[in-house]
Amino acid sequence: MVVEIGAGSDDDLMAALDRLLPRDESAYVHRHGSPGHGADHVLPLLVPPSLTVPVIAGRLALGTWQSICLLDPNPDNPVRSVRLSFVPGG
């Protein structure tokens, strides 16, 4: 996802997600793995698992304070892979 982080905004983001998707096990029908794992399956409704960012003159076209952040609150799988694909522009 592309977000502005720093000065506490990353903590605010995580707190907002915790309010929207509580880790209370009773909140979800899907129950296995770590407590509240059902929230991990609902998370892609709010935070898509893919992202497209234009590259202009060899640089990511992001706003001044924007960063690309990876979000995976699921502790059950500590190792993840990230795939980058580049599509040539016209």
Report on the structure:
With 90 residues, the chain is α+β, with helices and mostly antiparallel strands. The chain has one domain (2-68). The chain is 19% helix and 11% strand. The strands form 2 sheets. Strands 1-4 form a two-stranded antiparallel ribbon. Strands 2-3 form a two-stranded antiparallel ribbon. Strand 2 and strand 3 form a beta hairpin.
Task: Give a brief outline of the structure.
The protein has helices at 9-20, 38-42, and strands at 2-4, 55-56, 59-60, 66-68. With 90 residues, the protein is α+β, with helices and mostly antiparallel strands.
Low-confidence stretches: none
Principal-axes geometry comes out as: globular
Q: Count the domains.
A: 1
The main sheet orders its strands as 1-4
Q: How would you state the average pLDDT, rounded?
A: 85
Radius of gyration, whole Å: 16 Å
Note the total helix count.
2
Distance between the termini: 25 Å
Give the helix/strand class. Answer: alpha+beta
Question: What percent strand?
Answer: 5-15%
Beta strand count: 4
In N-to-C order, the SSE pattern is: EHHEEE
Helix content: 10-25%
User: Can you summarize the main beta sheet?
Assistant: 2 strands, antiparallel
